[in-house]
Design a protein that fits this description.
- The protein is of the alpha+beta class.
- It has two domains: about 1-50; about 60-110, no CATH class.
- Helix content is about 60%, strand content about 10%.
- The chain has a three-stranded antiparallel β-sheet with strand order 1-2-3, with helices on one face.
Length: about 120
Amino acid sequence: MDEKDHLGEKIRLKERAEEDQYFARRDQELLAKLKQAQAAEQERTIRELARSRCPQCGERLSQRSIHGQTIQECLSCQGIWLDKSKLELVSRPKSEEWLEHFLEGLVRLVGHPKGG
């Protein structure tokens, strides 16, 4: 009978160890999911804080219309930011003269003398 109790105790200990391993794995998976969700939320928050800010100096960008196109400009460092579609409109080869007028308008906008 003593051997039977000893064997039963070993089986119970093995079952308890397997149960502990199961819950440890489950806890690790839940923690990993929680960390991933927190990282995604932090990324969203950072993106929201950086939206409409100058990538060079961090100041808020303002919008301005030039030749019928709305661009974003930084009043602090005088950077001008165009998205891909605006850049394609500007660089489309309508004529070299049109692009030159556009660039001259940009120079006048930021207050730099032509050629300098």
